[in-house]
Write a structure and sequence with these properties.
171 residues, mainly beta, 7 strands, 36% strand
């Protein structure tokens, strides 16, 4: 018959400290290697009132808050969604070709035309994501370097009121 044999080993010495001396503590100090940390800053629209068919300019700064240069290219993605109608009206990827030194920022803009008609009315959410393909290996001391690559904003157009029924009081 085959089985598993277990043996318990007890360590002993003349001083009686056989089990107490099995632990060692070593103090180690580590230094975080230099990494880039891309972050969007000052994400805004330059158009105060959105209207169907209007030209909308979006502006932001791509910042490298890390301690190492971010060597391009990488992709930055803009998605504009009409939350009222649940329709995406823009989904585009922009290439950031230049390198970005530690502590440096790069001014970025993109202009698009809001749709005419029903999809141009409502509440819009604009999402910005940096390094969407994870081309740049990022890290920081709080371990959120990949999670801090996004920003968003909201804008609303004027109401699109349409008469659907006319009811006249009896004469």
């Amino acid at each position: 018959q085959k089985g598993l044999a277990l043996a318990k080993v007890r360590e002993a010495n003349a001083a009686g400290t056989g089990e107490a001396n099995n632990l060692a503590i070593v103090a180690v100090t580590g230094t975080l290697a230099p990494y880039p940390d891309l972050q969007p800053q000052s994400f805004q629209t330059t158009v105060a009132t959105w209207a169907p068919g209007a030209s909308i300019e979006l502006r932001w700064n791509t910042a490298n808050s890390g301690t190492r240069a971010a060597t391009g290219p990488w992709a930055e993605r803009l998605v504009v969604s009409n939350a009222s109608r649940r329709v995406v009206v823009l989904d585009t990827s922009l290439t950031h070709a230049a390198s970005l030194a530690p502590g440096a920022t790069s001014a970025r803009t993109h202009t698009f035309t809001l749709p005419s008609g029903a999809n141009g009315y409502g509440t819009f959410t604009v999402f910005l994501s940096l390094d969407t393909a994870n081309t740049i290996a990022e890290f920081n001391a709080t371990d959120d370097a990949e999670a801090n690559n996004t920003a968003s904003l909201q804008a609303t157009t004027a109401l699109d009121l349409a008469v659907t029924e006319v009811v006249l009081p009896p004469v």
